[in-house]
Amino acid sequence: MREAYYVFRRDIKRFYRSWGAYLLYFSFLMLTSLWVYRIDNFLVRNRADFTSYFSIFPYILSVIIPALTMGILAEEKNRGTYELLLTQGFSVYSLAVGKYAAVLVQITVMIILTIPVPLSLVSLGIFDPGRILARYIGVLLFSSTLASLGLYISALCKKQVQAFILSLLMLLIAALPRAVLSISAGGGTAAEVLRIVSPWYHLTSFSKGLLDSRDLVYYGATTVFFIFLTIRRINLERWS
Fold first, then answer.
1. Domain spans in the chain, listed from the N-terminal domain onward
2. Structure pTM?
């Protein structure tokens, strides 16, 4: 765990020393705020409901998370520090877990910074704080799965641009609710499987203020699965 913490601390320091980190945070806050105040016209809808506000999160995160993960391993390969970390005695497990944790913390901070938005509007109606909390938990779990997938794709690529484009395509497909719902509406086994494997589908319970154990297991399992694939990929490159 000490090795994983070193990798985590190293990536966190590198991230917050870059102006790009604050640009990402600012962009996320601006887009979500513009959505609720201007585009969605929350103040004139006369309805005490944050459903529309949280519905925009997966779309934006599906673009921002690839930007966060694209260089997490691909950049190490370009700099030559990838092999250096492995030859210094760092385990593959520590490298993968440390980098995943760093990305997840960056995303968590970004999401926490949006809390003042609903807080500024709670006086306008009667809101259920438990439902709002459940939605934030759902968004964080959703982000966890996307972050682990982005980490794996970064391990597959040697160029940051390649990792970004591939991650963006994969995450947009995975998080696109309209496509999932339109295909699922037809029924059948294929539609049911699509619903079950979709990260978006598992956000439904959280939007209702419910913490369904099936959704918790799904996000936990998919996160572990993609971290496992990342470890396997690094091992293959290490011994090839």
1. 2-239
2. 0.85
